[in-house]
Amino acid sequence: MSYRIMRYQWAIIESAIEKEKLRQKDYKLPSVISFVIYTGTEKWEKANYLIDKQEKLLGCPPEFFENFQFINVNEYTKQELLDQEGFLTKVMLLEKAKNYEELQEYLELIMEKQLEDRQKELLQRMIKYVYKNNLSDKKYNEFIQELQINQEKGGDSMFAEILGKKIDEVFEMEEKVKEQESKVKEQELKVKEREKKVKKQEAEIKEEKNNIIVNMIRNNIDENTILRVVNIDKSRLAKIKKQMMAS
137-146 and 100-111 helices cross at what angle (nearest 10)? Predict the structure, then answer.
């Protein structure tokens, strides 16, 4: 998890920096604060710091490295998350949903709130990229339509447009990573299938070879000829003779 957080943080920073200003002494890189919203029932046992997944460096405490802020969504009730100011708690509520019915209910409750244009814009993108597959086509279209805002407005809408583009870029990047991972898994499956075929062929060849040896023994062909023709060692030939005698 800590490694993934680092990748996401850097992807956001990389998309936001003004490269032509990087050499300027006073230019500051944008800050990214990461949150992991946990909805599981088991105890969280993942590393919160990237350094916990790295070789230890003498004189470098964990505070020297980036970490994410951990929030256990199970510690909050539905109403607490709804009533809190700000958009983050609404996202936490959506992550708390365990099924389609709860997700639909929570989205409806959130949309009853007086959302700012930028919050509507962000919620619309979340529905589009994160929750679409968990909603019926009818409900998806209803939510998207209800969240439409006047694109000619300035202020918060402009901010949402800029931030929204960054979100789009992150999700697109994650989709590309998933696509690459899928291709790697597909190749791994093909390799495993080939290995199975090779093992099956090897087993068939071994069985056929054993049948030839058995027939040669039954036809009283001398041992040296069998060893030379079939190309096996004496210990294997002796083992086959023993098995024939036992059967």
Answer: 20
Give the torsion sign (CA, 17, 18, 22, 27): negative
pLDDT band at 157 (very low <50, low <70, confident <90, very high): very low
On whether residue 98 sits in a domain, the answer given is no
Range of the domain at 188: 177-246
Whether 139 is in a domain gets the answer no
User: Which of 75, 96, 128 is the last residue in one of the domains?
Assistant: 75
pLDDT tens profile 47-57? 776 667 766 65
Evaluate if residue 92 carries a pLDDT over 60. yes
Name the domain count of the chain: 2
Is 212 within 8 Å of 230 (Cβ atoms)? Answer: yes
- With respect to residue 114, please indicate whether it lies within any of the assigned structural domains: no
- pLDDT by residue (tens digit) across 210-237? 889 888 888 888 888 888 888 888 888 8
- The domain boundary, picked from 30, 58, 75, lies at 75
